[in-house]
Amino acid sequence: MFRKIENPKDLVTIVVDGRELEVDATASVAAALLGAGMATVRRSVVTDQPRGPYCLMGICFECLVTIDGVQNRQACMVPVRDGMTISSQRGARTTQGGGR
Amino acid sequence: MTLTIIRNADDLSARYDIAIVGAGPAGMAAATECARLGLAVVVFDENAEAGGQIYRAIERNTRAGRPYLGSDYGRGAGLWAAFCATAASHVPSAAVWSLEQQGEGAAALAELRVSVAGRSRIVLARRVVLATGATERPMPVRGWTLPGVMSVGAAQIALKASALLPEGPVVLTGSGPLLYLYADQVLAAGGTIDAILETTPRRNWLRAAPHVFSFLASPYAWKGLGLMLRVRRAVRVFRAVTALEITGKDRADGVTFMAGGKTVSLPARSVFLHQGVIPHANLANAAGCALAWNDRQKCFAPVVDGEGRSTRPAIFIAGDGNGIAGAVVAEFDGRIAGIAAGLEVLGAGSSEASRRFVRLRKRALRGRAFIDLAYQPALSFRAPAAGDVVACRCEEVSVGAIREAAALGVAGPNQLKTMLRCGMGPCQGRMCAATVTELLADAQQRHPADVGTYRLRPPIKPVPLCEIAALPHTSEAVYAVTGGHSGH
Ligand SMILES: Cc1cc2nc3c(=O)[nH]c(=O)nc-3n(C[C@H](O)[C@H](O)[C@H](O)COP(=O)(O)OP(=O)(O)OC[C@H]3O[C@@H](n4cnc5c(N)ncnc54)[C@H](O)[C@@H]3O)c2cc1C
Ligand code: FES
C-alpha cells in the first residue's frame, strides 16, 4: 500500500510465505511488507479477520508474524536481515518446546 | 568521549547510576546532562535507532537527503550529536518490560528487566528516568481494523524511516496538527493526499479562544498557519465531519461520512486516522507511579513535580510520557529531570543550569493550552455510540459489549477486563485503555478520573517464557512455582 521514493542503497533478500522478495536493507519487516504491497499480514485470533500493521511503533501488535520460526514477533520493530524467513499467522499460537 | 553502543545482554553492567528508558528528545537530553555530571548512564530504547518519534531515523536522515521532513525535524541532529559525544551507553532494540522500586527514600533503587537480542537481564540503577513518549490516541470507528487503515503517525514513520509514500486514493481523518504536518511532508515529497476529513467539533474554537494570544506569541502559530494554507491549497478538506465509517471487505476501499448536512462517500485505498497523542505510561503504571486525569488533554498522565519526580522516589518521568507538550518541551523536560536525578545520586544541591532550562521550558509551553482545546477530539470519536465498532482490537471486544457491561454496573476497567477480556491481549490495553475509560464514564455518567484506567503488571511487553525463566530467581519464587528448593 506504499511506494518507495528512493532507490535503496543496499538490498537484502527475505522469504515471505515462501515467496522471495528483494527489499531495502534498512527497512523493518513491516515496512518491507508494506512496500511490497502487502497490507494484510495475519488473521485475527478471535474472529479470523484480516489484519495488518496499524501503528508501526510497537504499540498495537497488529503486525505479529512468525520470523525465523519464532511466533508473534512485532514486524514493525524487527529490522530485515538477509535470508530472513517470515510467515503470516492464522489462528491461535502454539507452545514451542526447547526454548525459542 | 563517545557513546558506547551495546547490542548484547552480556555486555550490560549489573548496575548503573542512571538508567533512562527512551532515546527520543527527552531521553537523549536527560542522558547528556547526566553524563556531563560524570555519572554512569545507560539508555534503553526498543527501537533499532535513537531519535524517538519526532526524530525517527535521525541517525540516517540528512537535510539534503530528505528535505521534505522539514525544519523541526532538523533540530534532532544537534541533539543526537551531543548525545553521541557523551560517555553514556545506548542499548538499541532493548525493550524494558519490568520496573520495580526497591527500598524507599534516598536509598531507593530501581530494578529494571530488559530484553536485548532475545535475552533478558536484570539491571539496577540508583535513579531511572522514564522518557517513554506518547502514543496516538485510539480512534475507534467502524472499519478501523481493516488492512489499508493505519494511524497517521504510522504513515509518517513509513516516510521518515523508509521513504514510503502511500498509494492513492489517500484519505486522512481526525483532528490535531499531525494531520497537516504529515500532509505537508507528503506533498513536499511529491506525493498526493486526496482528502482530509477534520472531525474537530466547530465549538472547540470558542473554548480555545481565551488562549489565542499566548498561542500567537508561540512559534507554532505562524509555522502552523503557513503549513495549513499550503495543504488547503492542494487538498480537498471537509470540516466538522461526523458519522465516519471505513468501508471494504478484506481491505479498505472507501470512507463514508456526514459533512455540511450531507452524506459523502469517497473511494480510498489508504486511510490514516489520528486524534492527538496521549502519554505512553504503561511502564510507570506497572511500577506503581500514581496517575491523574488531565481533563484538557482527556487522558491519564503520571503525577510528577516540577523536576519530573514521580510518586516513587527512584523513578523520574520526562517528556511526553508525563503529559503532552511536544518535542521542544520534551527536550528541556529531559534536561531538568536528568539533572535532578543526577544530583540526587551525587547527593548534591540545586543547579543554575537547571533553573535556566525551567525558564526555557516555560517559554516553549506557550500556546499549548490553545492547541489542546482547539484540537480536543469530539466525545463521539472518543466514546463512540455505535455498538458494532471494535474497541479492543486484540480480543475483538465491541463498544456495544462494553456499554452493556457498563449498564450492568461494572465497577471499572479492571473488572471489565475479567468480564470481557478487553485489554488482555498482546497490546495490554495500549489500544483500548483510553476508549474504555471514556466509554464507562459516558455510559455511567461518571467522571473519567473516577472510572480510572487499567492497573498494569509486568511484563509490560510480551517476553518469551524462556527469557523470564532464564533470569535469576529468589528461592521463595522457585518454591512458589515448583514446591522445591533446587535453585533455577
Ligand atoms: C507516531 C508519532 C509521530 C509524531 N510525530 C511528530 C512530529 O513529526 N513532530 C512533532 O513535533 N511531534 C511529533 N510527535 C509528538 C512526539 O510525541 C513529541 O514531539 C516527541 O517525540 C516527544 O519526545 P519524547 O522524548 O517525550 O518521546 P519519544 O520521542 O516518543 O521517545 C520515546 C522513546 O521511548 C521508547 N520506549 C517507550 N517505551 C519503552 C520501553 N518499555 N522500553 C524501551 N524503550 C521504550 C520508544 O521506543 C521511543 O523511542 C509524534 C508522536 C507520535 C506518537
Ligand atoms: S504495527 Fe503496531 S505493533 Fe507493529
From TrEMBL, chain A:
<dbReference type="Pfam" id="PF13510">
    <property type="entry name" value="Fer2_4"/>
</dbReference>
<dbReference type="InterPro" id="IPR042204">
    <property type="entry name" value="2Fe-2S-bd_N"/>
</dbReference>
<dbReference type="GO" id="GO:0051536">
    <property type="term" value="F:iron-sulfur cluster binding"/>
</dbReference>
<dbReference type="GO" id="GO:0016491">
    <property type="term" value="F:oxidoreductase activity"/>
</dbReference>
<keyword id="KW-0560">Oxidoreductase</keyword>
<protein>
    <submittedName>
        <fullName>2Fe-2S iron-sulfur cluster protein</fullName>
    </submittedName>
</protein>
<dbReference type="InterPro" id="IPR036010">
    <property type="entry name" value="2Fe-2S_ferredoxin-like_sf"/>
</dbReference>
UniProtKB/TrEMBL annotation, chain B:
<dbReference type="InterPro" id="IPR051691">
    <property type="entry name" value="Metab_Enz_Cyan_OpOx_G3PDH"/>
</dbReference>
<dbReference type="InterPro" id="IPR036188">
    <property type="entry name" value="FAD/NAD-bd_sf"/>
</dbReference>
<feature type="domain" description="FAD/NAD(P)-binding">
    <location>
        <begin position="16"/>
        <end position="332"/>
    </location>
</feature>
<protein>
    <submittedName>
        <fullName>Thioredoxin reductase</fullName>
    </submittedName>
</protein>
<dbReference type="InterPro" id="IPR023753">
    <property type="entry name" value="FAD/NAD-binding_dom"/>
</dbReference>
<dbReference type="InterPro" id="IPR041854">
    <property type="entry name" value="BFD-like_2Fe2S-bd_dom_sf"/>
</dbReference>
<keyword id="KW-0560">Oxidoreductase</keyword>
<feature type="domain" description="SoxA A3">
    <location>
        <begin position="395"/>
        <end position="470"/>
    </location>
</feature>
<dbReference type="Pfam" id="PF17806">
    <property type="entry name" value="SO_alpha_A3"/>
</dbReference>
<dbReference type="InterPro" id="IPR041117">
    <property type="entry name" value="SoxA_A3"/>
</dbReference>
<dbReference type="InterPro" id="IPR017224">
    <property type="entry name" value="Opine_Oxase_asu/HCN_bsu"/>
</dbReference>
<dbReference type="GO" id="GO:0016491">
    <property type="term" value="F:oxidoreductase activity"/>
</dbReference>
<dbReference type="Pfam" id="PF07992">
    <property type="entry name" value="Pyr_redox_2"/>
</dbReference>
